[in-house]
Predict the 3D structure of the following.
Amino acid sequence: MHTSLIGKYRIIKKVVAGLNIEKNAQILDLGTGHGAFLIEIARHLQHPGKIIGIDIWNKQDQANNSFENTKKLIVEQQLADVSELLTADMVKLPFEGNNFNYVVASLSIHNIKPAYKRQAAIQEAFRVLKKGGRMVIIDIEHVGEYQKFLQQLGAKEISISNTGINGMYAGLFTKVLIAKK
């Protein structure tokens, strides 16, 4: 309960603060869900900076997961001018290559089954990332798998860190992977 209600927000806030995101950055959030990562990043942006959140809005992945609920949160936080939501699948992204300064995902890629589809999601995320851009994945499973895929794609400066007690889910610890294209 601690991680779901408090810990994941602390993790996201710390990760975003450490990224030193430029105010005009172009960012893609994979598996946006309720928008925790998107909202925290959007607070650091100014137009023409923008974060686009995509999701398939599967209620089985997250309770009350819907485009409408997340859009409402963005509007309430007065972040609509730097945020956009789309319905899209991270396995086949509707964006041209080399488009984003950052591609981020929080507790979403592990929901993709089987492994070859997770690999497709990582490949797609890397494809739309600009040269010199960074991918940031916060997840509880498969982080070593993501690292391997990214190494095969030629990612540089790959780091993995543990999140401690704030990221503990049923005996699994959340990890943060950051990689540069």
About this structure: The mean pLDDT is 92.
